[in-house]
Amino acid sequence: MPPKLAEIVDEFATAPRDVVLEMLLEFADAMPPLPAELAGHEGMEQVPECQTQFFLKAIVQPDGSVTSLFDCPPEAPTTRAFAGILAEGLAGASAAEVLAVPDDLYSRMGLAQAISPLRVRGGTAILARLKRQVAEQVVPHQAG
Coiled coil: which residue ranges (predicted)? Predict the structure, then answer.
Protein backbone atom coordinates (compact mmCIF):
# COMPACT_ATOMS: atom_id res chain seq x y z
CA MET A 1 0.00 0.00 0.00
CA PRO A 2 1.38 3.46 -0.81
CA PRO A 3 2.78 5.14 2.34
CA LYS A 4 0.39 8.12 2.13
CA LEU A 5 -2.65 5.85 1.92
CA ALA A 6 -1.34 3.72 4.81
CA GLU A 7 -1.02 6.91 6.86
CA ILE A 8 -4.63 7.89 6.08
CA VAL A 9 -5.86 4.38 6.96
CA ASP A 10 -4.04 4.55 10.31
CA GLU A 11 -5.45 8.01 11.06
CA PHE A 12 -9.00 6.77 10.50
CA ALA A 13 -8.47 3.47 12.32
CA THR A 14 -7.23 5.22 15.46
CA ALA A 15 -9.60 8.22 15.43
CA PRO A 16 -12.52 8.38 17.87
CA ARG A 17 -15.76 7.55 16.10
CA ASP A 18 -17.19 11.07 16.56
CA VAL A 19 -14.16 12.52 14.71
CA VAL A 20 -14.37 10.08 11.78
CA LEU A 21 -17.33 11.82 10.11
CA GLU A 22 -15.57 15.17 10.43
CA MET A 23 -12.46 13.64 8.81
CA LEU A 24 -14.59 12.25 5.96
CA LEU A 25 -16.04 15.70 5.30
CA GLU A 26 -12.53 17.16 5.09
CA PHE A 27 -11.61 14.63 2.40
CA ALA A 28 -14.87 15.32 0.55
CA ASP A 29 -14.10 19.06 0.54
CA ALA A 30 -10.51 18.48 -0.59
CA MET A 31 -11.39 16.31 -3.58
CA PRO A 32 -9.65 17.76 -6.65
CA PRO A 33 -11.90 19.06 -9.42
CA LEU A 34 -12.25 17.10 -12.64
CA PRO A 35 -10.16 18.43 -15.57
CA ALA A 36 -12.31 20.43 -18.01
CA GLU A 37 -11.79 17.90 -20.84
CA LEU A 38 -13.58 15.26 -18.73
CA ALA A 39 -16.52 17.48 -17.74
CA GLY A 40 -18.93 15.30 -19.75
CA HIS A 41 -17.42 12.12 -18.23
CA GLU A 42 -16.02 11.20 -21.66
CA GLY A 43 -13.93 8.05 -21.29
CA MET A 44 -14.81 7.67 -17.61
CA GLU A 45 -16.45 4.63 -16.03
CA GLN A 46 -19.61 4.98 -13.97
CA VAL A 47 -19.75 3.02 -10.71
CA PRO A 48 -23.34 1.71 -10.58
CA GLU A 49 -22.88 0.28 -7.07
CA CYS A 50 -22.84 3.84 -5.74
CA GLN A 51 -26.23 5.33 -4.87
CA THR A 52 -25.14 8.59 -6.47
CA GLN A 53 -23.65 9.24 -9.89
CA PHE A 54 -19.95 8.46 -9.53
CA PHE A 55 -17.40 8.35 -12.34
CA LEU A 56 -13.74 7.38 -12.32
CA LYS A 57 -10.79 6.99 -14.61
CA ALA A 58 -7.34 5.58 -13.89
CA ILE A 59 -4.45 6.43 -16.21
CA VAL A 60 -1.17 4.54 -15.95
CA GLN A 61 1.50 7.04 -16.99
CA PRO A 62 4.60 6.06 -19.03
CA ASP A 63 6.70 6.13 -15.81
CA GLY A 64 4.35 3.57 -14.21
CA SER A 65 2.65 6.02 -11.84
CA VAL A 66 -1.13 6.18 -11.74
CA THR A 67 -3.30 9.26 -12.15
CA SER A 68 -6.75 8.77 -10.61
CA LEU A 69 -9.63 10.99 -11.64
CA PHE A 70 -12.98 11.01 -9.87
CA ASP A 71 -16.26 12.87 -10.19
CA CYS A 72 -19.04 12.82 -7.65
CA PRO A 73 -21.62 15.49 -6.79
CA PRO A 74 -21.07 17.61 -3.65
CA GLU A 75 -24.42 16.43 -2.26
CA ALA A 76 -22.89 12.96 -1.74
CA PRO A 77 -20.22 13.81 0.85
CA THR A 78 -19.44 10.27 1.99
CA THR A 79 -18.86 9.04 -1.54
CA ARG A 80 -16.84 12.18 -2.34
CA ALA A 81 -14.79 11.42 0.77
CA PHE A 82 -13.90 7.96 -0.57
CA ALA A 83 -12.73 9.61 -3.77
CA GLY A 84 -10.78 12.23 -1.82
CA ILE A 85 -9.09 9.54 0.28
CA LEU A 86 -8.07 7.61 -2.84
CA ALA A 87 -7.00 10.77 -4.69
CA GLU A 88 -4.73 11.87 -1.85
CA GLY A 89 -3.61 8.44 -0.74
CA LEU A 90 -2.74 7.22 -4.23
CA ALA A 91 -1.19 10.45 -5.56
CA GLY A 92 2.10 9.51 -7.21
CA ALA A 93 1.62 5.80 -6.49
CA SER A 94 2.88 3.19 -8.91
CA ALA A 95 0.54 0.77 -10.66
CA ALA A 96 1.92 -2.05 -8.47
CA GLU A 97 1.17 -0.04 -5.31
CA VAL A 98 -2.40 0.67 -6.45
CA LEU A 99 -2.98 -2.99 -7.28
CA ALA A 100 -1.65 -3.95 -3.83
CA VAL A 101 -4.23 -1.83 -1.97
CA PRO A 102 -6.27 -4.26 0.15
CA ASP A 103 -9.84 -4.77 -1.01
CA ASP A 104 -11.07 -4.35 2.57
CA LEU A 105 -9.51 -0.88 2.79
CA TYR A 106 -12.61 0.80 4.23
CA SER A 107 -13.06 -1.89 6.89
CA ARG A 108 -9.41 -1.44 7.89
CA MET A 109 -10.14 2.26 8.32
CA GLY A 110 -12.92 1.45 10.77
CA LEU A 111 -15.56 2.98 8.53
CA ALA A 112 -17.90 0.01 8.80
CA GLN A 113 -18.77 1.24 12.30
CA ALA A 114 -19.26 4.86 11.24
CA ILE A 115 -21.23 4.68 7.99
CA SER A 116 -23.86 2.45 6.42
CA PRO A 117 -22.91 -0.89 4.82
CA LEU A 118 -24.34 0.41 1.54
CA ARG A 119 -21.83 3.28 1.54
CA VAL A 120 -18.95 0.94 2.41
CA ARG A 121 -20.03 -1.33 -0.47
CA GLY A 122 -20.00 1.66 -2.83
CA GLY A 123 -16.51 2.67 -1.67
CA THR A 124 -15.30 -0.89 -2.12
CA ALA A 125 -16.72 -0.93 -5.66
CA ILE A 126 -14.90 2.33 -6.45
CA LEU A 127 -11.60 0.80 -5.36
CA ALA A 128 -12.28 -2.46 -7.26
CA ARG A 129 -13.05 -0.64 -10.52
CA LEU A 130 -10.01 1.61 -10.11
CA LYS A 131 -7.76 -1.42 -9.59
CA ARG A 132 -9.33 -3.21 -12.58
CA GLN A 133 -8.66 -0.22 -14.83
CA VAL A 134 -5.03 -0.11 -13.68
CA ALA A 135 -4.62 -3.87 -14.19
CA GLU A 136 -6.04 -3.65 -17.71
CA GLN A 137 -3.44 -1.03 -18.62
CA VAL A 138 -0.50 -2.79 -16.94
CA VAL A 139 -0.99 -6.34 -18.24
CA PRO A 140 -0.60 -5.44 -21.95
CA HIS A 141 2.68 -3.63 -21.17
CA GLN A 142 4.08 -6.66 -19.35
CA ALA A 143 3.16 -9.04 -22.18
CA GLY A 144 5.03 -6.95 -24.78
Answer: none
